[in-house]
């Protein structure tokens, strides 16, 4: 019964997230362009592409950046740059921005040949001996994630950004993942594996 209630609550929250106004979001997105690009496809590798991302996921991250600022970093997602950017945003602003950027097409990336073998193995199969789950379990075989479950689209994402996030999850510097799933996986990955996996995901289509 508790599981059913949790699922219903999650579905309800996602339906609320999806109600943003994309046109209103476009008008509010000017300040986002400096890092994320006018079309949501950042050309600076350390920043994420947000074009085509699930609106619920975008909105969740915006809310958690703000939560970290208002709780002194004890909750939410800590990031000094994004924290400062979101403080003036209302929930409606966040919903509108999420609707706008999710409506844009994400640009494609490529995977270096040197990263395919290790990256593909970890992504599709994981490593049972070390207790590493496959990425497909949450993000899907094409890296598209699932909107209703809250798992983000990672296909085509900037490899450097993915690498930075995996490192932050590994060190628990980022800890806003559901049930600490990303922290658990990243904690078992080596530097080389993180690099290969990040580059593989970047070119996954």
Question: What is shown here, in short?
Answer:
The protein has helices at residues 2-17, 22-28, 33-36, 55-70, 80-86, 91-102, 113-124, 136-139, 159-170, 181-186, 191-202.
Verbal overview:
InterPro entries: Cyt_c-like_dom, Cyt_c-like_dom_sf, Cyt_C_IC, Cytochrome_c4-like, Cytochrome_c_Oxidase_Subunit. Its main location: periplasm. Heme c 2 binds at residues 135, 138-139, 182. The chain is mainly α and 205 residues long. The protein folds into two domains: 22-103, Cytochrome Bc1 Complex, Chain D, domain 2 (Orthogonal Bundle); 113-203, Cytochrome c-like domain (Cytochrome Bc1 Complex, Chain D, domain 2, Orthogonal Bundle). It is 53% helix and 0% strand. It contains eleven helices and no strands. The protein has helices at 2-17, 22-28, 33-36, 55-70, 80-86, 91-102, 113-124, 136-139, 159-170, 181-186, 191-202. α1 (2-17) packs across α4 (55-70), α2 crosses α6 and α9 runs antiparallel to α11 (191-202). It is globular. The N and C termini lie far apart (38 Å). Mean pLDDT is 91; it is low at 1-17.
CATH architecture of the largest domain: Orthogonal Bundle
Tally of DSSP helical segments: 11
Shape: globular
Low-confidence stretches: 1-17
* Radius of gyration, taken over Cα atoms and rounded to an integer in Å: 17 Å
Strand content: under 5%
Describe the sheet with the most strands: none
CATH hierarchy, class of the largest domain? Mainly Alpha
Helix content: 40-55%
Domain Cytochrome c: 20-105, 114-205
Subcellular location: Periplasm
Signal peptide: 1-18
Keywords: Electron transport, Heme, Iron, Metal-binding, Periplasm, Signal, Transport
